[in-house]
Amino acid sequence: MAEMRGLLVLLVLLLVGSGIAIYKKYHANFPMEIIFRESKAERGQEKTTKTIQHTQSKIASPAPTEKVDLNTTSWAELDLLPYIGPTLSKKIIEYREKNGKFKQVDDLLKVNGIGEKTLEKIRGYVEVK
Predict the structure, then answer these.
(1) How many CB atoms lie within 10 A of CB 95?
(2) Which residue, 81, 76, 80, is CA-closest to 118?
(3) Which of 1, 54, 71, 117 is the least buried, fewest Cβ under 10 Å from its Cβ?
(4) CB within 8 A of 90, min separation 6: which ones?
(5) pLDDT digits over 64-117, tens only?
């Protein structure tokens, strides 16, 4: 009798797993991955949750129509700019906190991870007041 129950449980798990796999194959926005990532965050890995929030905000928000001031803008505002992700946003803020205000947009070249090409891509979105 216990063997039959065990076999039944395995069969149910197999069917559920197969159903999820089939559903996932035909539905690109299957929420299981988000649920899994959020559960990791609950175990102390907040970075994953920030990545999910970052991805969702990038999709929902277009690029700003006005330039943002490098000396006053927040991490979240920088993060929404094209060509700047959460890592560069963090580095820009850290540089500003450590070295003081930016004197000109070209000072972004002093931020680790921003080179000439990246600067030219983002120049139209940032300013220094």
Answers:
(1) 19
(2) 81
(3) 1
(4) 75
(5) 568 899 999 888 888 888 888 889 999 999 999 999 999 999 999 999 999 999
Q: How far apart are CA 50 and CA 8, in angstroms?
A: 40
Q: Which CATH number among 1.10.3720.10, 1.10.150.280, 3.20.20.70, 3.30.470.20 corresponds to the domain 63-129?
A: 1.10.150.280
What digits encode the pLDDT tens for the residues 25-65? 665 555 544 444 444 444 554 444 444 444 444 444 445 56
Q: What angle do CA 25, 21, 30 make, to 5 degrees?
A: 60
Q: Which two tokens stand for residue 88?
A: 């560069």
pTM for the predicted model, two decimal places: 0.51
Q: Residue 25: is it exposed, middle or buried by C-beta count within 10 angstroms (0-12/13-18/19+)?
A: exposed
**Per-residue DSSP letters for 25-91?**
HH-TT-THHHHHHHHHHHTT-HHHHHHHHHHHHHHHSPPPSSPEETTT--HHHHHTSTT--HHHHHH
Tokens for 82?
């094209």
